[in-house]
Amino acid sequence: MSEIKTVDARGLSCPQPVILTRQALDKKEFPIQVIVDTGTSRDNVTRMAQSQGCRVSVEAKGDQFVLTITKE
Amino acid sequence: MSSLNRFFTSRWRPIATGIVVGVLAPILVKLGNPGNMGVCVACFSRDIAGALGLQRVATVQYIRPEIIGFVLGSLGAALVFREFKPRTGSSPLVRFVLGMLAVIGALVFLGCPWRAYLRLAGGDWNAIAAIVGLFAGILIGIVFLRMGFSLGRNRAAPVALGWVMPVLMIGLLVLLVAAPLFGAKDASGNPTGPIFFSTTGPGSQHAPLWIALGISLLIGFLAQRSRFCTVGGVRDLVMMRDSHLFNGIVALIVAAFVTNLALGQFVPGFDKQPVAHTDALWNFGGMMLAGLAFILAGGCPGRQFILSGEGDGDAAIFTLGMIVGAGFVHNFNLASSASGPSPFGPAAVIVGLIVCVAIGLAFREPQTA
What is the secondary structure of B131-190 as a DSSP string? Predict the structure, then answer.
């Protein structure tokens, strides 16, 4: 089983979580897991990934959110 | 709620916030705030600096309740929706410096991005050069972001840290209401300060305290929910082709334009605009510096106050940098006046741009993707 690509975007200011996720999307190694720690980053990353035709599932883990991004 | 429904709702949030700000800001002018200054985060930071005696220009001193309301409204929304997350540690010192630089640029223009859009919506065409400058600053900032600029990560902080900024704002509200006078005595033996309120000029023009506070609590609440950002909107549109936040800016301008028309406050032209000058070059230059500083700090000044209300200690440091910086701006005679830029403002803008570029080049975060 190959390791899931993970983007750790915790604690970063706008728009760095989106930039890092976008860079990961461009490599097309799905699924991609993104860890963020604010609602703003969760929403921004989700919106960007959806605009790229990806599916995003969000799981809240304590104070953090784990976003799993897949491509149809 | 279906995902489509959720998407629709969230898509409308910045637009709704823009409309509310666009309608209420001209109403605040009608109720007494200076012209095209229903809301100006930079001007209001400057007035607060003046009220606290950090600068002693007698015409720009008042504790603006709008700023207090933004922070407390955001705090309320963050608590209700469980987004109050105290955090700090992302280069706070650099953010303080960026706050100082941003307010230098803003006060050379005479307005923050919010006021630039509000001035445009009031017919002040001098705002056009400033908005072009703002966009130029944002574009420069985007270059640094694409090169990997980062002020580093924040980390979770004790809950008490998140309450520091709201408590400071409550302290300001107490000083606003009490307006204590027990400072040094003037020539005629009357105590002056520690709180100074203008009796003439823009600082003396303000909407009734509790109405202004109520309106800004609402704006703070909505801005926290919608992530409304007058700089991020342009940034995201350019970088990601994402118009989500930019729609909020457009909504603000349109709503303010219509409201100004309805209230008889739309006065098109360049000359004799309220709290404004006609020097296009330094309207451009000032806002280019401000735009760059805001981008490097992650958001516009309104957004920084909103973030400080949801527990972001680094954003709070940026706002304090703006207030302290505003003191310096006037003490060093950098601020523009209705007659134009001061002799020293343009030089300060150039120095500020150099410092911002140095910051943009110097700070990197190792990539994790």
Answer: HHHHHHHHHHHHHHHHTTB-----EE--HHHHHHHHHHHHHHHHHHHH--B-S-B-TTS-
